[in-house]
Amino acid sequence: MTEQTEYYTAEVTSDCRCEIYDEETGESKLDEYGEPARPDYCYGDCYKESLYDLYDNFLTDWREKNDIGEDDLLVVSTNGMLWNKVSGWTTVEANKLNDALTLNGDYTLRYKLSKDFTELTCVRSSHDEYGSLFTIVKMPTLPCDKCGEQINADVHKEELGMCIPCSNDYYAHA
Ligand SMILES: [Zn+2]
Ligand SMILES: [Zn+2]
Fold it and tell me: Ligand 2 mean position to 68 CA, how many Å?
């Protein structure tokens, strides 16, 4: 997690970000372009580290401030995805958010969180996308029309306004 002027950011990428420690200087080795040098073979440590930072720092702060549990459903939506700019949305548990955004192949996911912890977005860049913006929110809840229990909005819609137990009950007696 990186703190910027207006945002916190976190990045997950399919590119290797491992650094090579230079014992002589005590710093990371640089390549001929002045960028950090990468090892010939990546064991995936950099990826694991970026996921750790995403879930255990960045998203934990967001979840705590917004009262979102690890297993709570999130809605991930976009207006311009992939080369054909399709819009769409999907739901995913908070502790699997990154899985909903990864692609087969090369990609970079740049997560951005406003400093008041209200706005969470992710820009995905890949071979097929210059950059697609995803908005991430907690799945809204609505009260069940019969018993009043708060249920996820997608269940509310699917079950015609009822929670699952009320819906089952309704159809068992219909
Ligand atoms: Zn690596
Ligand atoms: Zn109900």
Answer: 22
**Same domain for 154 and 75:** no
Q: How many CB atoms lie within 10 A of CB 12?
A: 22
Is the pLDDT at 81 greater than 80? The verdict is: no
67 and 151 share a domain?
no
Give the distance (Å) from ligand 2 centre to CA of residue 72. 19
Task: Please say whether the beta carbons of 70 and 93 come within 8 A.
Answer: yes
- Look at residue 29 and tell me if it is in a domain: no
- The 8-class DSSP code of residue 21 comes to E
- Domain total in the chain: 2
Domain shared by 42 and 116, yes or no: yes
C-alpha 45 – ligand 1 centre gap (Å)? 6
Amino acid sitting at position 156: H
CA atoms of 80 and 44, how far apart (whole Å)? 30
pLDDT of residue 57: 95
pTM: 0.83
- Give the closest ligand to the alpha carbon of residue 163: 2
C-alpha 87 – ligand 1 centre gap (Å) = 32
- Expressed in angstroms and rounded, the spacing between residue 99 Cα and the centre of ligand 2 is 31
User: Which domain covers residue 78, as residue numbers?
Assistant: 2-21+36-139
